[in-house]
Amino acid sequence: MTDLTNAVNTTERLDREEARVAAADAAARGKRGASSIRMQGLRKQFGRDSIALAGVDLDIHAGEFFTLLGPSGCGKTTLLRILAGLEEADDGQLTIGGKDVIDTPPHQRSVNTVFQSYALFPHLSVRENLAFGLKMRGVAAKAREAKVAEIAQFIQLGDLVDRRIDQLSGGQRQRIALARALVCEPDVLLLDEPLSALDAGLRSQLQVELLRVQKRLGMTFVFVTHDQDEAMVMSDRIAVLDDGHIQQVGPPQEVYERPANAFVARFMGHGNLYRIHRRDGSRLSTEIGTLQMDGDSQGELVLMRPETLDLKPGHVEGPNHLPGTITERLYRGSHAEFRIRIADTTLQATVNNRGRRLPDVGDEVTVVVAPEDLVTLSE
Amino acid sequence: MSTNNIAVMGRSQGMVREARHLLFTVAPGALWIVIFLVLPSLYLMAVAFMSNGPYGLPQMPLSLNSFKQLAGVGFLGWSPGNLYTLLRSLWQTLVATGLVVLVAYPLAYYITICRAKWRPIMLLLVVVPSWTNQVIRTFGWMNLLAPGTPLSNAAEVLGFIPPNMGLYPSNFAVTLGLVYNFLPFMVLPLYAAFEKLDTAQVEAAQDLYARPARAFWHAVFPQTLPGLLAGIVLVAIPAFGMYVIPELLGGGKAMMLGNLVATQFSGGSNWPLGAAGAILMLIATFIGLFAMRRIGKRLGGGEEVVI
Questions:
Q1: Terminal Cα-to-Cα distance of chain A (whole angstroms)
Q2: pLDDT < 70: residue spans in chain B
Q3: What residues does each domain of chain B span?
Q4: Quick one: which of A127, A224, A209 has its CA closest to A174?
Q5: Cβ contact, residue pair B207, A121, below 8 Å
Q6: pLDDT attached to residue B4
Q7: N or C: which end of chain A has fewer CB within 10 A?
Q8: A44–chain B nearest CA distance, Å
Q9: Of the candidates B39, B165, B176, which has an alpha carbon nearest to the alpha carbon of residue B95?
């Protein structure tokens, strides 16, 4: 509760101080030059037959909020640990800010991590936790104090710095962990599912806060998550990983609207994938019916995103009109989700609630899709 | 009025039930402690303040003679013998506990990083010797360290000891015996501490620019501190009062406080003096525990980490 209140207060205060802070930010950005990351052919294998990374090539731009997205076991955390130096790659090259760091031990890399479990030191006070990295770097006590005070103000920690770790809530620990990493002014900040242990409300508050911090500092953030909504909200670009391979890299909109393959489509929450039986120019004969595309197409699957579909009552004839019967309705207030039986398969459609009558289970409807909303892709 | 009465009766019934519950659960243990620990201890303390009678048995009147004797004041003026015994006990305890830590700490860590199927076996190997009687094990060391044995000969050739002396009896043998005897009591609590070690903290320290040695000191050591302090308590207190090992391996040359006390009772020489020695041991132990608490509190960042 207090976390939420704090976060709300924080947001208000941020708004009020925005103008004053803007000047300081410009100076901060000048001080902290953001670094780019280049990975080439990174491989990692655990044991005999568990391949975590199967040759990853990836460029992360300076000052970018970059997200590694994928299901558990896809290799995203291993990749992050290789960036931090906590895991050694079996093969491949890694440069951070143009410097080859593949053989550099973690304590010599100008990279800091916000750990999933936060990994705060329970025997040290919050203040000592924040000063730890600076102390290890040999920063003098006076300068350490000044930096800690600066970051405490920046992250709006208030009187948290005088508490003990076991007196902090999850959300407070998360912010201390972030501050502890940021105070070292690293070239790159790595975040390993930092919000996954928090409840939904606090989580979205901290998403906003984290994003603002990144934009204000202009620092390169590499963020790991398995939550595609979180990835889309926060990222400049997303890399979707599966089975140690990068499936697609691109801005959130591109990954969501033009998934490169069936895995990405399914992971981003799309279920309406249908096999293409035959092609006749831009005319596709699929397992759900005949569809007209805009221009040419490649791949053996067609994707129909639920929110691009229109429902018309009754059975209506026309191009890209698919007649079916509603088998399930989930009313969600702002919108409703329908499951519709068409031919021998099912289709999901999302309809915004504009106050009109929503069709019911058992109703006969016609699903209409615009040619430009169809996406084809391969398995 | 009547409802009030019922309520009072109900409450008293509840109290009776609670009292009976306490009687059946706590009473047997409390009784045991009172009869076999509290009363004998009180008797021992009383004995210390009595005078020494014929055959070394305590008798009236009350006196502080035993404490004077313990402090070294005798017929022939002051002698430092008992003081030496106390200092030797403290030193021997310190050295033995330190060595036990040096052996047990890496050993416990090694067992933790072993494959899961080997761990119980390795722990068993650490514990199994303590299943044998302590006296028998100590006799074993006597045989291993006596003059003319390979170990003694090797030490002779290397110039550690003069010819034909043997490693036993000596202070060295006593220290060795103590270390050997108390190793399991240090390994087990340390193993428990290492097993639940939060490796993320170690990685965080490395990530925050700590060299390996400093990562150990700031992220590993504090986490193992409760286990270490528990081990020190388990080793140092019994080692301080140890009787068998100094008696057998020291050959009467390396008397510790425990031996002093035992002699006063067994030889029938002076019960009040023995009781005074026991009280001294108790006080020294309490001081030691208090010091441990302070150290633990400081190293543990103000948290209670021991006892």
A1: 45
A2: 1-11, 56, 77, 252-254, 268, 300-307
A3: 3-67, 74-305
A4: A209
A5: no
A6: 57
A7: N
A8: 19
A9: B176
d(CA B51, CA B14): 52
Please report where in the chains the tokens 């087990």 appear, as a residue: B188
Tell whether omega for the bond before B238 is within 30 degrees of 0, i.e. cis.
Answer: no
Establish how many alpha carbons lie within 13 A of residue A140's alpha carbon, considering only the half-sphere containing its beta carbon: 2
Rounded distance, CA B38 to CA B46, Å?
12
Helix (H) or strand (E) holding B141, with range, is helix B134-145
Q: Is B206 on the interface with A (CB under 8 A)?
A: yes
Q: Are A200 and A207 in contact (CB under 8 A)?
A: no
Please indicate if any CB of chain A lies within 8 Å of the CB of B205.
yes
And the tokens for A45?
């294998």
Place of tokens 């005070």: A149
Beta carbons of A122 and B207 less than 8 Å apart: no
pTM of the prediction?
0.77
Report the 10 Å Cβ neighbour count for A70: 29
In what order do the strands lie in the sheet containing A301-303?
A289-292, A283-286, A273-280, A301-303, A375-377
Specify burial of residue B187 (Cβ count, 10 A radius: 0-12, 13-18, 19+). Answer: buried
At A69, give phi and psi (nearest 5°): -120, 135
Q: Do B210 and A136 touch (CB under 8 A)?
A: yes
Q: Do B209 and A113 touch (CB under 8 A)?
A: no
* Nearest-by-Cβ selection for A84 from B205, B207, B225: B207
Give the C-alpha separation, A329 to A331, whole Å: 6
**Residue A244 to residue A185: CA distance in whole angstroms:** 30
CA distances from A345 to A221, A327, A340 (A): 42, 12, 9
- Which residue do the tokens 């270490």 mark? B228
Q: A353, A361, A372: which is closest to A305 by C-alpha?
A: A372
- DSSP assignment of A153-188: HHTT-GGGGGSBGGG--HHHHHHHHHHHHHTT--SE
Q: Which of A83, A86, A81, A162 is nearest to A129 (CA)?
A: A162
Pick the CATH number of B74-305 from 1.10.260.40, 1.10.10.10, 1.20.1250.20, 1.10.3720.10: 1.10.3720.10
Cis before B246 (ω within 30): no
Block means of pLDDT (10 residues each) for chain A, length 379 residues? 50 52 49 78 87 91 93 91 92 90 91 93 90 92 90 84 86 90 91 88 87 89 93 94 93 93 90 88 86 83 91 87 92 92 90 86 91 87
Residue to substitute from B115, B198, B209, B306, interface A, most A β-carbons within 10 A? B209
Distance of CA A289 to the CA centre of its chain: 34
Task: Choose the closest CB to B206 out of A106, A120, A123.
Answer: A106
ipTM score of complex: 0.80
Six token digits for residue A160: 């948290």
Nearest Cα neighbor of A124 from A163, A154, A169, A181 is A163
Task: Give yes or no for a contact between B182 and B235, defined as CB atoms under 8 angstroms apart.
Answer: yes
Q: Can you spell out the DSSP letters for B4-27?
A: HHHHHHHHHHHHHHHHHHHHHHTH
Considering only the beta carbons, identify the residue of B201, B208, B301 that sits closest to A184.
Answer: B208
Please answer whether residues B98 and B155 qualify as being in contact, where contact means their C-beta atoms are separated by less than 8 angstroms: no
Select from A107, A122, A184 the Cβ nearest to the Cβ of B206. Answer: A107
